[in-house]
Design goal:
This protein has a single domain, classed as Clavaminate synthase-like (Double-stranded beta-helix, 4-Layer Sandwich). It is built from 7 helices and 16 strands. The longest helix has 15 residues. It binds N-oxalylglycine and manganese (II) ion (MN). The site of N-oxalylglycine has 10 residues, from strand 6, strand 15 and strand 16.
């Protein structure tokens, strides 16, 4: 089958057709997908029918997989995380974030499969943190490169939505970490803004009075519509994203409707 890659917006995203992720992927196809991912940062594929094992196996081709400290996981395939509104209050994801940036080594990326989608709503948005970086004034790029930020799991997982003992254990095992405000993609060498509303709590050595407005400016800048794409899901859609250089936002506008997504999370490197 011929693979086609159609960009979705100038800054980010591509629709990929001609690939069945349930089948073992040959080296040439994988290379095409990996190159498209580096170029477009988010890939969407329609009409995939994947078992949990097949989703895990495809994701594992990118690297070792991560098991989330708080979210529920499949009992059969623990590397498959369940984002199911029947199991969890998922408003945590209706906030711009880069997944698990509270880890010393945040994820490289993720493979997300839509299993149940509300009739209307529940779109996901992604922003290109490299396009946003490129648009900064040069003097600000130079200044931001000197800063490091703290990231903390506790910011996105509030006590009222999780079981207390489990949340306390997750906090103990995941103390706040420090990452550069501007990170460099290990493969492309591109620079990206790496602070997000979801997990960033401050700037090292800077009073909150100064750090908070500076961070708020960066959050607002990264998520300007011209750096983003928005995806309206159908069951069977798969999104693959590069978590090192993007942020995403899962819109919560569907009330009590049932929404189920399965995620496999690929481990990444220490940001530099
Ligand atoms: C995620 C997430 C996106 C969604 O899977 O990391 O934030 O659309 N959710 O549910
Ligand atoms: Mn996420």
């Amino acid at each position: 089958m011929d693979i086609t890659i159609e960009p979705l917006t100038p800054a980010i995203g591509a629709l990929v057709s001609g690939v069945d992720l349930a089948e073992p992927i040959d080296a040439a196809t994988r290379a095409t997908i990996e190159a498209a991912l580096l170029d477009r940062q988010v890939l969407l594929l329609r009409d995939q029918t994947l078992t949990e094992q097949q989703q895990r196996d495809f994701a594992a081709g990118f690297g070792p997989l991560h098991i989330h400290p708080i979210y529920p996981r499949s009992s059969q395939v623990p590397e498959i995380m369940l984002l199911d509104t029947a199991l969890n209050d998922l408003r945590d994801n209706a906030l711009w974030h880069s997944d698990v940036s509270f880890l010393e080594t945040p994820s490289l990326g993720a493979v997300l499969l839509a299993r149940k989608i509300p009739e209307l709503g529940g779109d996901t948005l992604w922003a290109s943190a490299t396009a946003a970086y490129d648009a900064l004034p040069e003097t600000l790029k130079v200044y931001l490169a000197t800063l490091r930020a703290t990231h903390d799991l506790a910011k996105s997982f509030p006590a009222e939505r999780f079981e207390a003992a489990e949340l306390e254990a997750a906090k103990r095992n995941n103390p706040p970490v420090v990452h550069p405000v501007i990170r460099t993609h290990p493969v492309t060498g591109k620079k990206a803004i790496f602070v997000s509303e979801g997990f960033t709590t401050g700037i090292v050595g800077m009073e909150p009075t100064l750090a908070e407005p500076l961070l708020a400016m960066l959050y607002a800048h990264v998520t300007r519509p011209k750096f983003t794409m928005r995806w309206k899901w159908r069951v069977g859609d798969v999104a693959i994203w590069d978590n090192r250089v993007t942020q995403h936002y899962a819109t919560y506008d569907y009330g009590n409707a049932h929404r189920v997504m399965n995620r496999a999370t690929i481990m990444g490197d220490k940001p530099f």
